[in-house]
Structure formats: structure tokens, C-alpha cells
Amino acid sequence: MNNSLQLRRQHLRGFNNFLEDTTALRNPQLYKTFGFIEGIVFSTLVATGSTLAGSAFAIAAITGAVSIGLSIGLSYLASSIFAPKAPKPEDVQQSVKNPISPRMRHYGRVKVSGPWTFAEAKGGDFYKVLAIGQGPIDAVEEYWLDDTKVTLNVDGGVVEEPWASTGTPIGSVVQIKSRLGAATETHYSELASVFPEWTSDHRGDGVASLYAKQFASGQEFYLSRFPSGVNTNYRLVIRSAQVKNPVTSATEWNDNAAAVIRDYVVHKDGMRLPESIVSTPLAQAGWVTAYNRAATNIATKAGSEPRYRLWGSYSLEERPADVLGRMMASCDGRLVPTPDGGLTLDIGEWQEPTVTIDESTIVGFSEVGRGRDVLTSANTIRAKYLDPAQDYQGADADPWVDAADVGDRGEIATDMEFIMAPSHSQARRLMKLAAFRANPSWVGQFQCNLGGLAAFGERFVRISFPKFGINSVFEVQDFRFNIGEGGILQGVTLQVQSMPSAAYDWNAAQEEGDAPVYDETEVDNTVPVPDAPTVDILAGPIAHLSFSPSPSAILSIEARYKITSSGTWNSIPIEEGTTTADSSTLVEDEEYEFQLRYVTEKGRAGDWSASTVVIADSVP
Fold first, then answer.
1. 36, 210, 258, 474: which one has the fewest Cβ atoms less than 10 Å from its Cβ?
2. Secondary structure (3-state) at 536
3. Under a CB-based contact definition with an 8 Å cutoff, are residues 595 and 543 in contact?
4. Which residues cross the membrane (predicted)?
5. What is the DSSP letter of 550?
């Protein structure tokens, strides 16, 4: 490792570069998108009043909104080709040597590592600083060295002894400390005391981080303690971002889906919409309703859990629509405008609709039919979710299968991702809804007169259309304004599909399915210990050792001996591939101990065997 001042300065510059805000979301179209929504809301308010026909302002607002919406759609389509890749749960657990990596932000409970912002060796010790993600985070719950969970003492030393065989005192092999990423942080004084270039200005404001020191180790112990060497992966299980509770207004750690989405919508590292848009009276009421729905306890096989939680990470270079899409998919959510110009969240829960669309409202229809066509239907839903039992990584949920339909038509599968859903039960409930949406009894589009405006912002409406024998509850998939000549609002078009209450019923015993079995195996990476050698005293006297061959081509055998009372060991050379060795001349009538051990090709030594004790009698 190069210890030059120039290299250390490069590391420090790398840390500062990481702190520069170069990869945050910068999407001016977002503001136009939500300006579009607000324009529609205002227009709707005017349209439902007594001056609809004469309101030139309403007409202009709606017409302008449609044109903006079209330009946004084309822009979104073009940018989707070059969309940054969304981070998988396992991606954020990797530590990489890249101080200018895009920043990450985390919600809920996640297991994470991060890019190196400093790495240097001095005096045989190795020092490392990792940037975990945007702060502040709420707490660090667990520390992991590679695949070993460790506990730290007050000084950051490891309490337990995974290196007990080396005889190393507790806490003298690794030191770990962390910062939560407060707005004004404190630097790592342990690092500054060794590298003067790391000053009190290297605080890492707003960035959660980890400091690790791997103490100098002798060659025979180093790989036993650090099999990955300087690339030892330090990971943390954290309670991540603190978010505002829309019910209590408290800002604290919370994994409720509504609280997480609300935070992302207004956060400076999220969509950056003004707080005012989610705080109008009707919008606030909607967020409270969504929060309470997400917090409702749902039965599981093991007991119960909140209906919808969100755990996961996003990169600040991702498009906000992609991040929001992951969140919505994992909680059956949708953002909806409110009549007072706000924006709120609707989380799916069955409720009898208050709006009925009937023949007095319907003026036309298209694509009305029984169910979906074969290209868009599915009888098997496969999905991935976030499984804490699988090391906080993605796992395949038990598929949702309509066995009868599979028997009739064969398997027609669709793959989905609920990668921010942190339980198998939550994933299966979402899969059930997806199955109903893939196989509705009715689908279609209905053109309505101005009476259809009553469906604006509604998730469920009842449609009564005797011509087709329809009198069912439908879920609104799309709501469009119909603009006529001169910019006159003539009505709306509803794209709908039937959604029965059974889709939201839940029987954990029958429907939760079986979560995947945790398939991690315990791997014994220790070097085996050989049996004690067989020792015969030959003329000289000398000791003749016999032993079993090495169990592996990568393990060589070493031997040693000493006078029991002296405590000084002497080595016995062993030729490669042999199973015997001879000592040098011994002292007659002294008691000796003889031991063996295996050593890997990289110099990692195992423990010595038990001693074979013999007396060096004279041989006639």
C-alpha cells in the first residue's frame, strides 16, 4: 500500500468529491407534471360550478394541461431508454472503491455497505471509511464483518472473539465506529490522529458513514482474521430515514408506506414537491386515511403485521417516477389530486363506492368485454420481495396460481416485483390483487357527460349499464377529460375493470402460501487440525515422525518439537508429498513433545495438533 502524501491527498479529495451534490435528482418535468395535475384540479372545481360554459379560464387551463401532458409523455418515453438501473437490495450491500459513486438513500430497515471514501495503511494497520448513504439515519442495529455478526464495546472494539484461536486479546483486531449523518457531523478523530491531512473539516455532513481499523497482524494470523484482506466487507443493519408521521406530525423512524411515500414526495433528495401540496385540508385527510390503512394489522400465519410497510433503497440519479413506481407497487398505492389543489395518497382497501355511473351519465363506450384477452391475462403470478430472512435480499415468493385456469389453458405467467415489500405475507396479498386485475370479469372504456366528473379521484365506482347486464363495482384505471372544439370540456372517459370485494379478503392460513426456505449454509472456513504424529525414537537418538497425508492439495504440513520443560519449539523440515520426517539429534533421557499443523498455500496456518510425548531413550 502506497503511503505517500500524494496518495492520501487523493483519498481525501475523493471523500470531498463524494460529498458534492452531483447526482441528486434534477427533473424539471416533475414540476410540469404536478402543475398539470393542479391545473386539472382547478379546472374541475370551475367546471363543477355554475359558470362552467362561460369559464374561458377553465377551458384554457384544461387545454394547456393536455398539451403539457403530451409533451411530458414524449419526454418520458425518450428518457426511459436511458433510465439508470434501480439498485437491488443486494447491490447496496457491496463495498466498492469508488468515492464518486451516486449517493444512496434508504427507507425502513435495510442491510447496507457503501463506497470507500478513504482507504490507507500505516504501520501495518489498515484504515477505511465507507459512505453508507444520505443521512440522517435513525440507528445502527447490527454490525457485520463479511458474514459474521459482531458486537462492539464502547470503544468500537469487537466484544466476541471470532479469532480466539489466534490468542489475540478482545478488541485488538478490529475497531469499528459509525456516524448517523447528522446535518453537522463530527470527524473521525481516530483517523485524524494518524493522518494529519484528515482534519476536523472532514466531517461528512449529512452522510451516514462507517470507520474501520484493521490492526496489524502477523502473517500466520492475518488471513485467519481477515480472509478477504483489505476487501473485508463491513455491513450494517440500520433503521434508516426518519420521516414525518402524517397523523402525529412527529418526525421519527417509521416504515409505514404512507409516511415513506409522503417523505419521498417532498424530500429534497426525492421528488422535491412543495410541502404545501400535500398539506391542504383534503390532501392531509387523505394522507391520514392512507397511513391508518397501511398501519392496520393483517393476520399472518405467524401472528399479524401492518398491512403495508416499505423497506429499501434508491439512488439519487434514478428518475423519481421509477422510485415512486417501486413504492406504489409494493403497497397498492396511487397518488391522486384533491379538489382543493392538493395531492394525496390512496392505499387500496375495499370500500363500497359512493359514486354510481349509469345510463344517465354514459354517452358511449368502447372495448367493453368479458375479461382480458389472452395476451394480457395471467393465471400465474410470480413475484420478488425483500426478505430479511434471506440476508435482506430479494427472494421469490410462493407463486399465486389459479390451478383450475392453468388446467384449462395451460400456464400463463407474469412476473412482478414488490421489492420494497419486506414480508412474504405482504407480497402474497399484492399478488392476489394482481391476479384479480389480470383476470377481471369486465373491462372497458366508458365515455361520460359532465356527470362523470363525480368519479374524479375515486378508486372504485359502481357502473350500472343494463344493456350489457352490468351492475358491478369497477376500479378506475384511467381518467381523461374530453375536450371539444373551442376548448370546451364536454365530458370524461373512464377506463375501468371490475374489482370485487373478494380481492381484498384475506385468509392467511389458506392464502399466505409458503415463504422460501432460508438456504444459506454454514461454511467452515477454518483450517483443519491434524492428528498427533506417531513418534519412534531411533539411534542417535532422533525422532522419526509418521503421519497421515494432507487432506488437500492446498494444505502443507509443518512439524515442531521441544523439550517439555524448556518451552522452546524447534521446527522439523518435511518434504512435500511425504508422510514421515526426522528430527535432529535429541538429548538422551529428556521428555519431548511433537506436534503437527496444516498451512494453506497463502500462508494461513491452522491450530497445532495435540502433543505426542516421548522420552528420548538411548537406542542400542
1. 36
2. strand
3. no
4. 56-78
5. P
Q: Are 207 and 191 in contact (CB under 8 A)?
A: no
Show the DSSP H helices in 355-472 as ranges: 403-409, 424-438
Cβ–Cβ < 8 Å for 327, 310: yes
**Topology alike, domains 350-371+440-523 and 534-615:** no
Rounded to whole angstroms, the Cα distance separating 514 from 504 reads: 20
In tens, the pLDDT along 75-122 reads 444 445 556 677 878 778 877 777 677 889 999 999 999 999 899 999
* CB neighbours of residue 482 within 10 Å: 18
Query: What does the pLDDT read at residue 377?
Result: 85
Judge contact between 607 and 595, C-beta under 8 A.
no
pLDDT band at 451 (very low <50, low <70, confident <90, very high): very high
Detail the DSSP E strand segments found in 400-538. 400-401, 413-418, 442-448, 460-465, 470-483, 489-498, 534-538
Q: Residue 117 region, left (φ>0) first, then alpha (ψ -120 to 50), else beta?
A: alpha
**Contacting residues for 213 by C-beta, under 8 A, at least 6 apart:** 125, 126, 127, 128, 174, 175, 176, 190
Q: Give the start-to-end residue ranges of the domains of the chain.
A: 87-241, 350-371+440-523, 534-615
| pLDDT digit string, tens, across residues 274-299 | 999 999 999 999 999 999 999 999 99
From CA 265, how far away is CA 37, in angstroms rounded? 14
Length of the chain equals 620
Q: Please write down the HEC assignment for all residues of 551-576.
A: CCCCEEEEEEEEECCCCCCEEECCCC
510 Cβ contact list (under 8 Å, min separation 6): none
Q: How far apart are CA 385 and CA 512, in angstroms?
A: 14
d(CA 181, CA 144): 19
Alpha-carbon separation of residue 159 from 233, 274, 280, 524, 526 (angstroms): 18, 47, 52, 21, 20
Strands 580-582 and 570-572: unpaired
Q: Which CATH number fits domain 350-371+440-523: 3.40.50, 2.40.30, 2.60.40, 2.20.25?
A: 2.40.30
Cell triple for residue 293? 390503512
Cβ count near 32 (within 10 Å): 15
Could you please report the per-residue DSSP string of 371-404? S--TTT--SEEEEEEEEGGGTTEEEEPPPEE-HH
The class level of CATH for 534-615 reads mainly beta
**Mean pLDDT value across residues 551-574:** 92
pLDDT at 211 over 50: yes
- Per the DSSP assignment, residues forming a β-bridge with 597 are 558
Q: How confident is the model at residue 49 (pLDDT cuts 50, 70, 90)?
A: very low
Q: How many CB atoms lie within 10 A of CB 348?
A: 22
Exposure string over 202-226, b if 16+ CB within 10 A, otherwise e: bbbebbbbbbbbbbebeeebbbbbb
- The label of the residue with cell 381484498 reads 504
Number of other residues whose CB lies within 10 A of the CB of residue 54: 9
CA distance linking residue 106 with residue 100, whole number of Å: 18
Phi, psi for residue 69 in degrees, rounded to 5: -60, -40
